[in-house]
Fold this protein.
Amino acid sequence: MPNTILIGAPIDDGQRRQGCVMGPAAYRVAGIAAAIRDLGHGVEDWGDLTLSTLPEAICANPAVHSLAQVLAWTDLLSDRVDDALSAGALPIILGGDHSLALGTVTGAANYAARQDRPLFLLWLDAHSDFHTPMTTTSGNLHGTPVAYIAGRGGFAPFPPFPKPIPAERICLYGIRSVDPAEHAALLQHDIAINDMRVLDERGIVAPLREFLDSVRTAQGMLHVSLDVDFLDPAIAPAVGTTVPGGTTFREAHLVMELLHESGLVTSLDLVELNPFLDDRGKTALLMVDLVGSLMGRKVFDRPTRSY
């Protein structure tokens, strides 16, 4: 059995700007399987998931759109991530917008509960994604996964999240765009917000190492959810929700190398890649390069370029 499994999640339903549906194909064209294999890891590609029938779904908030589709994706992704973890592999989910985390983290939580191990969440993102279907004004469900994972109310008709992750096991890292309502709710849950101000003052390493130490001490599993907009848009333009001031090339690779050295990552999301907005595939290539660092490639391994 390979120790990494690629799962394509061509989901465009959590927001309104089309293009994320092409994300899984872009990762494959950018050579994600070869990048993992070249580092000595087994890799299997389970292909792209597809929806069949949609559930009946109504939300009291009229702004919410594509609810039935997101519900179906949540159920499907939960099962497939659980399957991959049960096979002893590291699932890497190729997205797709960030609403896919409603399902991927559910699958990881179900598996972790059966193993009697705590699940931790590292959210590498410009946004906190702490709205609920009842508080969102945009109606975009890609802005709700962390609230769901933390056990906030207002998510019917979504099934209750299995064993909501307590605040001390959630790390929001690289945050720089939070709505006032989200901020107030985050303070009620006492979730640490490692925004770019914190990272500028304390550095990239210290807050991450502290969080990883807590995962290690608890013998926990770690789900990492990496949004393209964690990166500065100057180096990663292929995202519909750009926020200036993101992590640099070197900072992002340092984060990935620290995660590799920790040996703690058990599942990974790659989300919000919109190839329609990319510049000759540079964002997809960078994201694949970051996966390489997560899988063991060192910064001094990178070849010199002639351009």
